[in-house]
Structures are given as structure tokens and as C-alpha cells.
Amino acid sequence: FWPIHSMVTFTIHLKSCLPSVVRTLILQKKSSIRNMSSVAVGLRPASVVILHRSLTLDFERFCQANSGPLPLLGRSEPGKWTLPSLGAVPDTRTGCSQFLKYEFGACTGSLASLEEYSEQLKDMVAFLLGCSFSLEGALEQVGLPRGDPAGHGHAGAYKTTVPCATVAGFCCPLVVTMRPIPKDKLEELVRASCSMGAEGQPIHIGDPELLGIQDLAKPDYGDPVVCQPGDVPVFWPSQMTSLEAVSSCRTPLAFTSAPGCTVLTSLKYPEAPASCLTPEGIPEVHRISQDPLHYSIASAPAVQKIRELETLIAIDPGNRGIGYLFCEDDLLRASLSLSHARSVLITTGFPTHFNREPPEETDGPPGAIALAAFLQALEKGVSLIVDQRAWSLFKKLVEEALEQGEQQAGAACFPNGLWEEGAGNQCWWDLHRAPRCCQA
Fold first, then answer.
1. Which of 269, 271, 294, 324 shows its CA 20 to 30 Å from the CA of 111?
2. In the structure, what pLDDT confidence band is assigned to residue 157 with cuts at 50, 70 and 90?
């Protein structure tokens, strides 16, 4: 092999190596071969999770329920450390540059090899999880530098307040990685990453606080990536989610590959669906809001349909002057915002007839019920809030909707005193699980 004069030179040599040669280099456990994100062209890297055999089915189900950050490529049988279906994968006891050891949920050390644990490994299963290194290819494709061109470390990853789907004892937050993207390159980068299939798609574009990340300068894993003026933070799921998952299950003994360390498989990255490659499947990037900064992705046909609806809504056959209320792309921004929301608050019940009982408008209340129904169908948590004056009317409307199956649960009344001062004249229904009304 070539003398290692510098990591940069070595990385270039690795890129030109045959896959079998690269695997051999990894198995030699060279201390300088750690971050594989900028090498192994043509190979699909994978991170490793090793758990007791009793957790096999639960962890499989956890990965299936959270396939974005945890794309499961395969697993071994207990005590067997090769995965023939994935090609010539090296023995996972020594095939990874570095492992982390977990005991009862705590990381208790790092290891260059698992040979000393051969007896315990007889009752353990190795899982291989796909990595997001396709992102680096997308960055190159649009002329942007990789997260770590020299290969000395790995780009920062951040714990979010977004929970992964819980399965048995596996319960953890989503971990993401971030790249700062110049605004004028944003749509080009999104199209390049989406063309690489589901694993390449970003999960959030904009203000990190919307994910619960307080400070980009303080990543939970790896090195911080600096945003320059004019950059937009773009976030992708991170394989570091697997470390949080292992910690959450608090099993007596487990191992994972260390951040930035992988084994190499003979698998190729999955091709993007044909629909992603057609004009109809090309994504567009649209800004939902400036403060907080938030962008969303939508297909060109979907955007066109929403704009056509907005044009129809602006028609004013009665000459009521509603054209003055029209703001271009308001409906698009509202639709995209709803698509991101986990829960939605709807208010209605504007009084229009002071000499009638009830005084409420006649189109708003049923419209609110209809809006709540289709948002529930999209698995959103939905709440309705109205003035206390309108409680009787809306109670009847909600009960009727429940009888007809348009809503998913009944209503309950909370005792007084649950509202903050100033909110005592409002009623509240939570239509997600246990709809309720609050009256102060």
C-alpha cells in the first residue's frame, strides 16, 4: 500500500481502491481510518448495532417504525457474524474502526475490537443500518463542499425534541445532522438529494429551534458546522439516532459503531423511484415563514393545484370586496404549514346576528367541523376553541359529528380554574384523543 503522507492524500487513494482493498484496510484497524463519509465510492457504508438476541424483534420493529433515521439493511443470526445476503461484509467483531460499549443505557467506553467479548457475542445479534453518506454526493453534485473534506472527523449531529415512534423499550428522540446551504443553492441541493431516494430527503429546512435545537455551535455528536450569512440550515436524519435508541433500552450489554465509523457492504444505494425523475416529481422549495425561518418541499403539480384553488377562492360574484383580503400564495403557505403540524387549533363562532339566538354565523361552525374531520384523517391532533357564549351550539355540533362518525371521540367538561387569567370566556375541545371543553 501507499505511504500515508497525509489524510487528504490517503483519502484520494482510498477512492481509487477496489472495494476488497478498502475492506482490507479497515480490518487492519488503522487508527487514522475512522470517518468513512468521504471514501468508499461505489460501496454502501453501514453503522452497527449489537444487542442481546432477546431484543431482536423489538429492535427490528423499532427500525421499521423509524425507517428514516434507521434504515435496516440486515442482521445476523445470534453468534454468527457474517451477513451473506449483503455481500462480502467483513466480520463485524473487527470490521469497524471503533465500537462504543453500553451497559444499562450508559456508554462506558470505546473499543477497537470486540474479540474479548466473544463469549457474550454468542447470544447477541448484529444489525446493519444504512448511513446518510449519499448526502455528501448531493453536496458535490451542486458544487458545495462536503461536511468534512479532509476526513478528520464527522459533521455535528443534534438531538431534537421530535420523538421517534416508541416500540417496547426503545424510546428516544430523533437525531439529525445539519448542513448550511446558501439560499441560492437550496432548491438545487434539495432536488439532488431527493433524486437519491427516500434516504436523501431532508426532514427540516430552517430555524433549528423548530426541532428543539437551541445552539448549532454545540452539537451532541461530532464537530459544529458554521453557518455563514445567507446560509439556510438544512437537516437530515442521522444514524446517531441508533445510539440514543440503544441507550434508551438500558440493556445490560450492547455495542454500536462509534460516530463516523462504519463497515462497508456490497449493496448499492437504492435508486430513486421513477416518479422522482419525472417533471411531475421534481420538488420545489417554498418559504412558509421568515420568522421563524421555515421552508417546505412540495411537488410542482401540488403547488399548481393549490394556486388554482386560491384563484377560485378569490372570485367575488357578490362584490363583497373580498379581493382586498387576497394575498398571493397565502393558501400555499397555510397548506404547507398544516402539512408540518402535529396538532392544529381551529377557532370559529364569529357573532353576526345580535338579535338572534344563537347569534353565530351559519357557515363558520360546520366549516370548522369539516376542517377538523379531514385534519383528523391526516392524523393531526385537532382542537376547537370558541367563546363561552357559543358553548351550547358547538356542544350540539360536536355531539352530532360524533354520532355521524365525523369525529373520533366524545367531549368532557373540566372544572373551573384550569385557564390562565384572561382566558375564562373560552371553551376548548381537543378532538385528537379525548375531546374536551374547558370553562373557567
1. 269
2. very high
